[in-house]
Amino acid sequence: MKLLVTRPEPGASATAARLAAIGYEPVVVPCLTIRTTKPRMPEHPAALVITSGQAVPALPATLHHLPTFCVGDATAAKLRQAGFTRVESAGGNAEDLARLVVARHVPGLHLLAVGERQGLALAGKLREAGIPVLRRKVYTVTPARHLPEPVATALEAGEIAGALFYSAETARAFARLNPPGTAGITAYALSEMVAIALQDLPWARIRAAVVPTEADLMALLA
């Protein structure tokens, strides 16, 4: 069974390897390209707030000791693998992350490391709660401009059984490519928020993971 893997690299290749290991034929078509940036960082932030695992490669080792709050378990695992030692996951979405940061109330400046045009609402909520926040763009996102011809052909021929989506941004980028043949396949979404972003396209059905982790997403394939 062929499954589209739409997430950016390096996550796309890692997911493809997991799918191949359980008997699927992954078709990797990253809909976004991620590039890290090097913004000027505050010298002594008190805590770190992360909304996406895409931010992790841009974060220097000097931040590894900080209390680090992130949106979900997959990002938490990525942070720990990178060397962060005080990681706490909100296990949900940006609203859950805001509640977690407010509840912990670490005194001092919170560094919010995000992608381009991201994190503005979260920064506002935290400031309203009295938490000092410095937002820094640590990566940029470039959407794909077209579907590779072999992928479009496979979709049109009905050779793809399903497609995996890990973020709402990826889902929207995929929809803008005007992919053929989606009415005959199943979309697998990491969360309800991702599922909502998929509704602009026709699908045989959309299935969303109960918990926003790759393990729960993969469980939908069983």
Largest sheet: 6 strands, mixed
Strand content: 15-25%
- How many domains, in number, for the residues? 2
Which outline best applies? Answer: elongated
- Broad CATH class of the largest domain: Alpha Beta
Helix content: 25-40%
- Gyration radius, to the nearest Å? 18 Å
CATH architecture of the largest domain: 3-Layer(aba) Sandwich
Write a structural description:
The protein has helices at 11-21, 73-82, 94-104, 120-128, 149-156, 168-176, 192-197, 214-219, and strands spanning 2-5, 25-28, 32-36, 47-50, 68-70, 87-89, 110-115, 133-143, 160-165, 186-189, 205-208. With 222 residues, the chain is an alpha/beta fold. It has two domains: 2-31 and 144-219, Rossmann fold; 35-141, 3-Layer(aba) Sandwich (Rossmann fold). It is elongated, with a radius of gyration of 18 Å.
